[in-house]
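Entry type: protein chain
Record version: 2
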Amino acid sequence: MKLVVIDLSGALSFDKEALSLLPAGRREELLRLPAMSRIRSAFAELALRKELSAVVPRAKEAVFARSDRGKPYLEDHPEQYFSLSHSGGFAVCALSDMPVGVDVEQIKERDLSVATRFSAWEREQLAASEDPKRLFYRFWTARESALKLRGTGLSELKRVEIAPCGLLFDGEKFSFPLAAYSLRQGVMRLLPPEEGDHMLALCGAGEAESEFFTAEQLLAIY
């Protein structure tokens, strides 16, 4: 399993160059987005195509299909599993030969009332925490990475809960391991979940190899 993290500091200045490296159809889709959303999406996809190019032909020009629930995949290479996420100052992608899910979220002020969807144990942990905002994002990214692995998105949110033994799906231990990390711009490594200002969860089988790039470094590879 491979995790690629792109630090997007200064990435807006590379907007045109990043878009020029994507297939025309995808470029047109991204041009409809606000500037920062476009940049995050573009660099997550460029990181993915770079990694896929080592295992499938013409990955940098490939057109992705989508499942009926919106999960992207390579129609000609369904054996290649991947997941993308971006938030705040980072874009990330995860690749594996088994299902995989990744989620990154910038830790920021928000209404935590959505936690009413969480289990009683999770709500107790949030109420007792000295930093409930950070813990909320740890719970949230864990959920979302597992659902992205399943390819269902948030439609199954109520079927997932966090328990002392780990992540549960429909009350049973989830069959794929889950890891929690954090990120901070300018730091080119994964951090313990209590340190960074972005929370990251990675769900999938096998040991994860991580690789970091700035936006400029990734473009230089192309």
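Comment: The two ends are 22 Å apart (CA to CA).
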